[in-house]
Amino acid sequence: MANQTISPGPATAAAAPKSVRKKRVEPILFNTFNTLFMIGLVVVTLYPFLNTIVVSLNAGNDTIRGGIYLWPREFTWQNYKAVFASGTIYDAFWISVARTVLSTLLNLGLTTMLAYTLSRREYVFRKPITLIFILTMYFNAGLIPGYFLMKDLNLINSFWVYVIPSMISAFNMIVIRTYIGTIPESLVESARIDGAGDFKIFIRIIFPLCKPVLATIALFVAVGAWNSWFDAFIYTSSRQELSTLQYELMKLLSSSMNANSNPAVAAGAGMTKDSAVNMVTPISIRAAVTVVASVPILLVYPFMQKYFVVGLNVGSVKE
């Protein structure tokens, strides 16, 4: 039988251009919708912080009227002068920096070592020890037993009360152990054949390869240590030289919320009580405190963003 060539009919010829046009239009519509949605999401996300900055730069008595959006009506630095009026805030800043750096470094080092140990299949106690750490995520003794524990360890009114309790994190250990599980076992076996021990394998192979997840964990630990104020209130409130920045800002905010004016802040800023009523209000002080507390973390975040995105994908794909 001779081969017959079937030519497309009128209906087929008319349908082909429509499918082609549909394939061309769909990506345009999707990209347009996606772009508009992301722009709206960015605006919704950034507006509260931008408005906080604007309020912190606006005169307190004018802020009470409301209607402050993206530009201050009466520009002033008085709110920030009130925040930095107390000389103790500078010492508290360095205490916060020291505790954040030490807590982050110790947490990363010790938690990663623990995660590597519990990731080894040849370690016979890895399952019961892992279970013990997981239980600490759901159960704790409470505030009063925790205080007595710190007291028995002689950590009350000590700088190390900020650092030692946060050296190990069960959640961070699980995240890092999951990431270590994605590293090919052949790398460890090759190192063992070359005569490397566990410590050398950890330092030369595991730790460098964990850079993305470590950057993510470092950001979590640093933000938590920087924003913490309750431990200063509980353990070191009787020693002013150990006060942290967040605790000092919390005290300032609490005092400003008690009334429409704060005589102590006004005196420290070189103002009379009457002028403080007109210039410094709880709303403006709260905005200035928020900006001061957020700036250091905002300066660090861009340098860790690329690792942060990679680290969040840990365990999402298994091959």
UniProtKB/TrEMBL annotation:
Keyword Transmembrane recorded: yes
UniProt keywords, alphabetically: Cell membrane, Membrane, Transmembrane, Transmembrane helix, Transport
Bilayer topology annotation: Multi-pass membrane protein
SUPFAM superfamilies referenced in this protein's UniProt entry, alphabetically: MetI-like
GO BP of this protein: transmembrane transport
Ranges where the ABC transmembrane type-1 domain occurs: 93-304
Record's GO cellular component terms: plasma membrane
Residue intervals passing through the bilayer: 28-50, 93-116, 128-148, 160-180, 201-226, 283-303
Main location: membrane
Classification via Pfam families: BPD_transp_1 (PF00528)
Domain of life: Bacteria
Family: Belongs to the binding-protein-dependent transport system permease family.
Record-given protein name: Carbohydrate ABC transporter permease
Organism expressing this protein natively: Paenibacillus lautus
